[in-house]
């Protein structure tokens, strides 16, 4: 009996370990919905590395190239498109964003916009677990100001998101998380718990 129990525990552990190693968390939401900070918390607390997105936008204060994004010129980005470097790419707020093939690996989190989410939500690959973080415009605006964004730029991003979400329905995702009254750590904890439950099946 004891030997059978040990064998079953080892089997379950190896099965779960195998699934974790073949899965990826995809996080999306409006500007300042908390998706990037949640990805950082998943790394800090649970060791889930973040896949780094490439962009042509200007680097913000305290951002580090290669840690927050890979910052490249428009010319470089367009050359990478021609070379087939991206799984998906889009233009958001006048800047290119894209996920490169060499950044998509097992047991990572990926932060993307609505257009990028459409690509992954259409995937039949059950290893990809998609999340949409929902927050009010007021909270998103406050987060932008708190992180040092220019007020006019923050208003422009809010207006842009309003237009995007007015004309584009949210693609079907595995989970929608309301981050309105939660800390970033609470959001990350919920994402991780749902992710772990998801990959068991």
What are its keywords?
201 residues; alpha/beta; 5-stranded parallel sheet; 45% helix
What does this structure look like?
- By secondary structure, the protein is of the alpha/beta class.
- It has a domain at 21-51 and 105-199: P-loop containing nucleotide triphosphate hydrolases (Rossmann fold), CATH 3.40.50.
- 45% of the residues lie in helices and 21% in strands.
- It contains seven helices and nine strands.
- It has helices at 2-20, 35-46, 74-82, 114-121, 137-146, 151-167, 184-199; strands at 24-29, 49-51, 54-55, 70-71, 86-92, 95-100, 108-112, 128-134, 175-178.
- A hairpin with a 2-residue loop joins strand 5 and strand 6 (95-100).
- Helix 2 packs across helix 7 and helix 5 packs antiparallel against helix 6.
Task: Give a short synopsis of this structure.
Helix content is 45%, strand content 21%. By secondary structure, it is of the alpha/beta class.
